[in-house]
Design a protein that fits this description.
two-stranded antiparallel sheet
Length: 71
Amino acid sequence: AGRRFSKADGSASLPPYTVADAQISARLAALGGHARLAFRLDNLTDARYSVIPRFPMPPRHIRLSLTVDAF
């Protein structure tokens, strides 16, 4: 994201930042193909940034999820 103004009058701004995420997922045959396992890595480069002044966004982190379709 580029420079963003944090005050309505344009007197203050937040610096630009770049964030990259990655995800891989697969259907699980063991559950009849009705489930998906996903691994996600957010903020690959561990960028330090804020979207709102004085509220930093999370550092690099991992998410693991299992989604099961009911029908």
